[in-house]
Amino acid sequence: MEKELLTVSIYTENFVGLLNRITTIFTKRHVNIESITASKSEIENVHRYTIVVRESETLIKKIVKVLEKQIDVIGAFYHSEDQTIYQEISLYKVNVENVNNSKFKEIITTNHAKIVAVEKEFVVIEKSGTKEETDKLYNELNPFGLMQFVRSGRVVITKQKMKISEILNNNKNN
Amino acid sequence: MEVQTQTKPKSSIKKTIRITGAEALIKCLLAEGIDLIYGYPGGAIMPIYDKLYKYQDQLNHVLTRHEQGATHAAQGFARVTGKTGVVFATSGPGATNLVTGIADALIDSTPLVCITGQVASHLLGTDAFQETDIISISTPVTKWNYQVTKSSEIPKVIAKAFYIANSGRPGPVLIDITKDAQFGELDFVYEKCKAIRSYTPVPEMDINKVKAAAELINNAKKPFIVMGQGVILGQAEKELKALIKKTGIPIASTALGLSGLETDHPLFVGMVGMHGHYAPNIKTNECDVLIAIGMRFDDRVTGDLKRYAKQARIIHFEIDPAEVDKNVKTDVAVLGDVKVTLKALLPFVNETSHIQWHQEFKDLYELEYEVVIKDQLNPKKSGLTMGEVIEAINKYTKGEAVIVSDVGQHQMFACRYAKFTRTRSKITSGGLGTMGFALPAAIGAKMGVPDREVIAIIGDGGYQMTIQELGTIFQTKIPVKIVVLNNSFLGMVRQWQEMFFDRRYASTKMVNPDFVKIAEGYDIKAKRVDKREDLQAAIQEMVQSKEAYFLEVVIEKEDNVFPMIPTGASVSEVRLE
User: Fold this and answer.
1) Does the model's ipTM exceed the 0.85 cut?
2) Tell me, which fold does domain B207-360 have in CATH?
3) If you measure CA to CA, which chain A residue comes closest to B165?
4) Cα–Cα distance, B260 to B262 (Å, whole number)
5) Which CATH fold topology does B14-188 show?
């Protein structure tokens, strides 16, 4: 089965320990999580996890069913790359001594990055975009002496509707 | 003062009382109709035990001799009654000792509510005395778990726990309660949980799927049903019987489905799987429609999946959507409660008979009888066989007993040879294969159905894994019957060593103590049988005993259980010898 980059979106109640319950479902099947983010969602008191994995669709389909089976999981879905709009955010810490030249400024401009902090010893650049875009900036900034680099997990909006409110209403009326 | 224009209807106003979290927990249990708890006290759960003392006229607490024993006893109780088993344990080792039983309950869909005491909330995460993170430990093996740190949470959380444990596909729930939440006070009022917004216990039935299933069944020349424990859990025994009566379809069972249909039903063709009967395994790969009802295509049932029922259209009646297409791709999946879906199916299926097809099963049974069964029931060798012991039990119980078996060769013999006339009569550790399950589970089963005969059949290995529960029998005087089939080996592992590891018997030989003396130490009537001529009388004496009874039967040492599907082989490669 061919592995592909898939995004799993999980809507849950906001309880302590739920992250552990979710991740063990992946680890039990020896699936490595590429990235994970957790935040509030569009619905009040509903949490949303976005997990990116490189796996076969067959296995992820089964995992999504097991996720859905968890009591505090309201709904779980998976999507391929073309069904999502996604962004990642990267921060780059660069030595201040190396940035005072036109080449550096040009890199910031052409990459649509921005400087979010200037301190005595370093500046911090922020760039959001796809992995390819933040990687490109990484490669271009590397010669200037990267002191730190960090990239967030993917945050995703799906083109398809995820009917969370409907699920919540249905179960309430049971 | 404002004029009161509307008064709330009386029923919606519930009076609260001010009590401690510990007492609230006890009141929650009483409100849920619980009158039996298995457990073991310790520091972090003492406030609850202290309140239990106050309510001991309403709640019977059975002190097992180990927390694992408490979980298995609660499982045995739950499996024979369908009610939720309740377990108490303290923090730390008390809680970790529950894990095996909880894992067993999850994989075998058994409703349990386990209450563990926890260190006070201000000590959480400090490596306090007897602190263990039981929530993280138990997460992968529970249907739901939750840590209570405030006494006010107790009524709602316990109500949820009982609702979750015994709705939909049942399973174990663990609630961890910190000591300060047990001591703290709350305004208590109890309301049963009826729905949880994030949880759909039973998926809605799609009548079109039912019709599609009926069409496949009606057009089938060689249909074959495999039933699982779902039939028992869903209390769909009658609906299933009506279906086979109308359609005449041959039916086999998984190990856990046994007793859901009486063994002597004319359409019953035995057990499927690794040590199941010959015909149902062979015919799995010859049928044209395979109808799976409340079972999950476990690897011990299917053998090599790539060669499992490839010629057949597959229909799966199932409550848990995650089981559909997990191992075997279905053509029609009918989700829902089997009691409902089978009832809905009945009017759509044609009245048929499959006499010729059924005869093919009978022919293969004759072959299995000649090669395997005959020698088990009427052995030529001098040593006793497990099969003849089970057959003797059948004779004296008339198939009406609850048979609780452990794990290993004796378990497979019990599944293959025991006769059942009533549902919920075969209790065993199926999915997890937990040695040590049977003795405590039999105690729980007997407490669940005190009017029925309950017989534990255990190997000499598994018996010694929870042998301490003889103490529970001694203290409660519960009249459970124990048969240890002693072949002085870990028989199943030895059989594999014989067949697949060139008879290198690594660490499978058991040097055993005097089991009769041990039982007598607990004041349990006990006997050892090692000759064929003594077997019948001993079984009869055991069955007739009004008290607990221990019977050790010395078995032929190197006997094997057949048929067998070797690991990785197809069901059609099942070996008779």
Assistant:
1) yes
2) Rossmann fold (3.40.50)
3) A71
4) 7
5) Rossmann fold (3.40.50)
